[in-house]
Design goal:
The chain is an all-beta fold. The chain contains no helices and seven strands. A four-stranded antiparallel beta sheet has the order 1-2-7-4, with no helix packed on it.
């Protein structure tokens, strides 16, 4: 299922741009197309709040040509950080 973007921030970082994408609710296997394509050079994600259950904190994320897939054990708000040449 596709996730809905809540807000975006951009910061210039030399020849790249750091994008901070905020999602209010993400579940395991949600996807989102950033539109950045193959310009992505790095990415990571984290939950906006700590999970109450040990071992269920953290967010895995994978990228395929600018489409990100999230892996997490519980539903929650997520920040996605993407470094791209734009």
């Amino acid at each position: 299922m596709a996730v809905t973007l809540a807000s975006t921030y951009r910061e210039s970082s030399g020849s790249t741009t750091l994008y901070i994408f905020n999602f209010s609710s993400v579940v395991d296997a949600d996807t989102w197309d950033s539109g950045l394509g193959t310009n992505v050079v790095g990415f990571w994600a984290n939950g906006q709040t700590n999970e109450a259950t040990a071992g269920q904190e953290g967010v895995a994320v994978s990228n395929s040509s600018g489409t990100f897939t999230f892996g997490l054990k519980t539903t929650g708000a997520v920040n996605l950080f993407v470094l791209a040449r734009t």
